[in-house]
Amino acid sequence: MTRLTGALLVGGASRRFGSPKALARFRGETLAARAHRLLDEVCDEVLVVGKTGELGSLPFSVLDDGGGPSRAPVFGLVAALRHARHEVVVALPVDNPLITPGALRALGEASAVPSERIPLPGAYPRSLLPALEGRLERGELSLRGVNPRALRLPERLLVDADTPTELTELERPGHALVVGGTGMLAGLTRALAERGHAVTSVARRAVQLGSGVVSLPLDYGDDEHLAGGLCEAIASRGPLELAVCWVHTDAPAVPAAVADALAPGARLVQVFGTRIWLLADVPLHVAYRQVLLGSVGDRWLTHEEISDGVLEAVDADRPLWVVGERSERQVSD
Questions:
Q1: Measured between alpha carbons, how far is 9 from 96 in angstroms, rounded to an integer?
Q2: CB 236: neighbour CB atoms within 10 A?
Q3: Contact present, 10 and 55 (Cβ < 8 Å)
Q4: CATH of 173-323, one of 3.40.50.720, 1.10.10.10, 3.40.50.300, 3.40.1280.10
Q5: Which of 28, 108, 187, 290 has the fewest other C-beta atoms within 10 Å?
Q6: In the chain, what are the domain boundaries?
Q7: Phi, psi (degrees; rounded to nearest 5) at 4
Q8: CATH superfamily of the domain spanning 4-161
Q9: Per residue in 217-276, pLDDT tens?
Q10: What mean pLDDT comes out for the span 137-166?
């Protein structure tokens, strides 16, 4: 794979937002921390570029963009290309909270931007640095047309938040799917509903899990039944923005089918008991997360501990999360 440098751009003016966007919170963390974390998942180094000393509460150092009073992102990109250890820089504005690691990696591998009209987030090879420096000398601050390579991404992934109201709307709990959530994950299913999610629970038998949860009984091992059920759920309750799946290897097609049905920017959290069988081809519009269940001392996790641990994993939004203690001996399903 291509070695990448991530450039988190934090030098914007945030005029419409009314306060520094980098410090605004989204799903329990600042936008800057979130964007840095996503870049760190796919890049070999991450540079934070902006105005030195302006955002003192950030937990990482800021490379000055050299643009003086100008807030144009081209200054941050040029500074990143000059200081990057690697030949390709993936530049990410701080206010794109729905972008996925897969989309960032795809842009980097292709050295591409979403389109000529949308140059950020985007990947820029160092070979473009002379052209960018020439633009700065001529006073041309737009990045449009600098990189001719385009990799089309779903527009939803590129949504930015220009006002606090827009950010709040992006954070609002949406439609969540739980596959296999009527047993040991019943507590998680209820907790998501209590948080305001419209929850669809897919299981082989109907179980009443309280207000906000719609039970969808079907044999999810049957590909056609599952596809039809997902379409029905989306049509009645809206796009799926979060999915938690805990299924055994007798239903191997479930994670891929769920991933394909998710809205751009959604998260797919796959839970594993003892045997790990990862989703092979993760669509770039989905953030794929793994949760490994272990034990506590010499006993297995309780149902409550499992639900609480998976809920923590949903909140943490990390590539890998372990609940309890896990040993290499836990290898059978």
A1: 11
A2: 12
A3: yes
A4: 3.40.50.720
A5: 28
A6: 4-161, 173-323
A7: -125, 150
A8: Spore Coat Polysaccharide Biosynthesis Protein SpsA; Chain A (3.90.550.10)
A9: 998 888 899 999 999 999 999 999 999 999 988 888 999 999 999 999 999 999 999 889
A10: 96
Supply φ then ψ for residue 280, to 5 degrees: -70, -45
List 298's β-bridge partners, or say none: none
Distance CA 239, CA 113 (A): 26
**Number of other residues whose CB lies within 10 A of the CB of residue 155:** 11
Q: Using DSSP bridges, classify how beta strands 63-64 and 88-93 pair: parallel, antiparallel or unpaired.
A: unpaired
Q: Single out the residue of 180, 182, 185 nearest to residue 303, CA to CA.
A: 185
Strand spans (E) along the chain: 4-9, 25-26, 29-30, 45-50, 63-64, 88-93, 122-125, 175-179, 198-203, 213-217, 240-245, 266-272, 286-293, 295-296, 299-300, 320-323
In this structure, what are the phi and psi dihedrals at residue 319, rounded to the nearest 5 degrees?
-60, -35
Q: From CA 84, how far away is CA 132, in angstroms rounded?
A: 15
pLDDT of residue 328: 57
* Burial of 250 from C-beta contacts in 10 A (0-12 / 13-18 / 19+): exposed
Q: With CA atoms as reference, report the closest residue to 241 among 214, 278, 269, 220.
A: 269
Mean pLDDT computed over every residue of the chain? 94
Q: What three-state secondary structure class fits 262?
A: coil
Backbone angles phi, psi at 180, to 5 degrees: 80, 35
The structure tokens 């998501």 sit at 192
Angle between helices 31-42 and 101-110 in degrees, nearest 10? 50
Q: Whole-prediction pTM value?
A: 0.94
The answer to whether the beta carbons of residues 209 and 215 sit under 8 Å apart is yes
Distance CA 114, CA 91 (A): 12
Report the amino acid identity of residue 225.
H
Residue 11 Rama label (left phi>0; alpha psi -120 to 50; beta): alpha
Q: Read off the pLDDT of residues 23-63 as tens digits, 9 standing for 90 and up.
A: 999 999 999 999 999 999 999 999 999 999 888 889 999 99
